[in-house]
Design a protein that fits this description.
By secondary structure, this protein is of the alpha/beta class. The protein is built from 24 helices and ten strands. Its EC number is 3.5.1.98.
Length: 715
């Protein structure tokens, strides 16, 4: 049988070569045309079928003879094709075994007859599986190291965003390197299997002795390949450890000096408890920095008129965009803690507004179609929206409406103020500033007006009182327009004191409300204070008038009320730079910083400012910068000495007298305003000088009426 097998082997070289192609297929995904280009040209179909049949008959005879003579198990193991059938899909997925080419792309050739060749194939395949398993474990370790590095980076608030992105890209490249190395190594090993099988089968045809030397060469090659792969893995592991050391060194060097730099809003911290790496601040009791909070969200930029022309609409997205840019440029933003905003729920909005108002202005068009029209419209009979002259849609000529984005922006503005105030009330933050739009203090229970849809400050006050059990809340409205919506919400509420400084002009300035005698009703009588400036812009109110109002009315009543938190409707349209229809006053931006500093003396410093009005970009940026400097406790630019000792103008004195006379009935600390004696003497002397100058000027004038009238007008 042995001699006949050798003779048969010499006569079947083409079939052996075809068998090599099939074994090469098992070893890797190398096309036969690239590895053995001569196979496709050899053998005819009839001769290959005959060779296959003869080979199978011969194999069966040899197997039966060995079983009969020796009674032993066959020496050769299962063929790779049989082994292939036993490989489960789970094992293939776990070890990423190379997939086989479909049968229509392979030669119909017999397997190699040589027992030694089959042993080598199986041995190489087992080694390949072991290497793949080791390599997958090493890749998993590398990924764990990379994940640990990311976890170490994220809590480190002092690292710059650009630095994080740079290191992130570098670590991603390092993670990709082992994967690419694995694929190259798998391809090279599969190609090597094909080549080695060809060499081994050729050696069997001549003689069997060189097989041992070939096996040694192959073993050395595989060992050298494993050593190279192991060295590469060791190098990557050392590189990851080196990266960890760099980050730890940076953190220990920068320390608390960089604790005020925070991650951007788009990222969320992730530090699992089972991390194997020590947290850099683990020895500290708390990572939280007790400082000023700032909240802002780009969703509020989308609320804009569909005409797209900012010139027609003073309340536009550039307002909060410019303030946010100013805070970044001055470095104030890095000293504050940035808070992630959220949309207020309809339930929260209905703390102040009616159900139909909340649904109408707080839902998207698709959701609005599903609602009951009676709930949506309520008792409103007038037209809800109108076409504006610019071509857009609006509630009125000022309050524009964007069907796609206005509802989301209005709810986001409310949610941002709620989130910030809740953290200040719970002492997570020292104080805060909300850069939000659209404004809110004109929005009444069922009416949107004056750029406002939802009253953010009023909703926040009721949320703090009802949800967080805050007993007494002070609301100070610094906007040049009266906050009619806020006054309406708390007109009979003694737990919330509302104070407003605004241009009134006997009810001739928008919105027409806010008279001094509007003091509240029922149990809330006396908890509504209106400092209503009259007299128009002759002269306009400035720093002196506002500082005097704080000194004589606001701070005494606020100290007597003793609030637990202070909410400020921070409208900056009283700052100089606004045209008369939108303000016309001459209060400086730095004066708003000093007013904020005075409010910080109340409620243990728990003060939250929310942007309301203000439409001159330079003015609102300067005022916001001054207020945040005050919230942070930075040194403020001092006011001029003459302003501190100057008395208000006559119109302001009249307004303050009327307000103090009314409020002194409810607040012991508020006394009727009277001009100090020295100030009154200085004022009377000034008036006498002006009268004397007028008389002398009139005496020097010509009697001619035509000349007298223009000179009198200029005087």
């Amino acid at each position: 049988a042995s001699s006949s097998f050798k003779e048969k082997q010499k006569g079947e070289t083409p079939s052996l070569r075809q068998g090599v192609a099939l074994a090469g297929q098992y070893g890797g995904n190398i096309p036969p045309s690239s590895t053995h280009p001569h196979i496709a040209l050899e053998g005819k179909p009839n001769s290959s079928h005959q060779a296959l049949l003869q080979h199978l008959l011969l194999k069966e005879q040899m197997r039966q003879q060995k079983l009969l003579v020796t009674g032993a198990v066959p020496l050769h193991p299962q063929s790779p094709l049989a082994a292939k059938e036993r490989v489960s899909p789970g094992i293939r997925a776990a070890h990423k075994l190379p997939r086989h080419r479909p049968l229509n792309r392979t030669q119909s050739a017999p397997l190699p007859q040589s027992t030694l060749a089959q042993l080598v194939i199986q041995q190489q395949h087992q080694q390949f599986l072991e290497k793949q398993k080791q390599y997958q474990q090493q890749i998993h370790m590398n990924k764990m190291l990379s994940k640990s590095i990311e976890q170490l980076k994220q809590p480190g608030n002092h690292l710059e965003e650009a630095e994080e992105e740079l290191h992130g890209d570098h670590s991603m490249q390092e993670e990709r390197a082992p994967t690419s190395g694995a694929s190259v190594r798998a391809e090279s090993s599969s190609a090597g299997v094909d080549d080695r099988i060809g060499q081994q089968v050729g050696a069997v045809k001549v003689k069997e002795e060189p097989l041992d030397s070939d096996e040694d060469v192959q073993t050395q090659q595989m060992e050298s390949g494993e050593q190279a792969a192991f060295m590469q893995q060791e190098f990557l592991a050392h590189q990851h450890v080196h990266q960890l050391q760099i980050y730890q060194a940076q953190m220990s060097t920068v320390g608390m000096a960089g604790s005020d730099k925070h991650r951007p809003l788009s990222r969320t911290p992730s530090s699992p408890a089972d991390s194997t790496l020590p947290h850099p601040d683990m020895d500290q009791p708390s990572q939280h920095v007790y400082t000023t909070g700032v909240v802002y969200d780009s969703l509020m930029l989308k609320h804009q008129c569909m005409c797209g022309n900012y010139a027609n609409h003073p309340e536009h997205a550039g307002r909060i965009q410019s303030i946010w840019s100013r805070l970044q440029e001055t470095g104030l933003l890095n000293k504050c803690e940035r808070i992630r905003g959220r949309k207020a729920s309809l339930e929260e909005i209905q703390l102040v507004h009616s159900e139909h108002h909340s649904l109408l202005y707080g839902t998207s068009p698709l959701n609005r179609q599903k609602l009951d029209p009676r709930k949506l419209l309520g008792n409103v009979s007038q037209k809800l929206f109108s076409l504006l002259p610019c071509g857009g849609l609006g509630v009125d000529s000022d309050t524009v409406w964007n069907e796609l984005h206005s509802a989301g922006a209005a709810r986001m503005a409310v949610g941002c103020v709620i989130e910030l105030a809740a953290r200040v009330a719970s002492r997570e933050l020292k104080n805060g500033f909300a850069v939000v739009r659209p404004p809110g203090h004109h929005a009444e229970e069922s009416t949107a007006m004056g750029f406002c849809f939802f009253n953010s400050i009023a909703i926040t006050a009721k949320y703090l009182r009802d949800k967080l059990n805050i007993g007494k809340i002070l609301i100070v409205d610094l906007d040049v327009h009266h906050g009619n919506g806020t006054q309406q919400a708390f007109y009979a509420d003694p737990s919330i004191l509302y104070v407003s400084l605004h241009r009134y002009d006997e009810g001739n300035f928008f919105p027409g409300s806010g008279a001094p005698n509007e003091v509240g009703s029922g149990p809330g009588e006396g908890y509504n204070i209106n400092i209503a400036w009259t007299g128009g812009l002759d002269p306009p109110m400035g720093d002196v008038e506002y500082l005097t109002a704080f000194r004589t009315v606001i701070m005494p009543a606020a100290n007597e009320f003793d609030p637990e938190i202070v909410l400020v409707s921070a409208g900056f349209d009283a700052v100089e730079g606004h045209d008369p229809p939108l303000g016309g006053y001459k209060v400086t931006a730095k004066c708003f910083g000093h007013l904020t500093k005075q409010l910080l003396k109340l409620a243990d410093g728990r003060v939250v400012l929310a942007l309301e009005g203000g439409h001159d970009l330079t003015a609102i940026c300067d005022a916001s910068e001054a207020c945040i400097n005050a919230l942070l406790g930075n040194e403020l630019e001092p006011l001029p000495e003459d302003i501190v000792h100057q008395i208000p103008n006559m119109n302001a004195i009249a307004s303050l007298k009327k307000t103090t006379e009314i409020q002194s009935k409810y607040w012991k600390s508020v006394e009727p305003y009277s001009v100090p004696v020295d100030c009154a003497l200085a004022e009377s002397q000034k008036q006498e000088r002006e009268e004397t100058e007028t008389v002398s000027a009139m005496a020097s004038l010509s009697v001619d009426v035509e000349q007298c009238i223009p000179q009198e007008g200029s005087r």
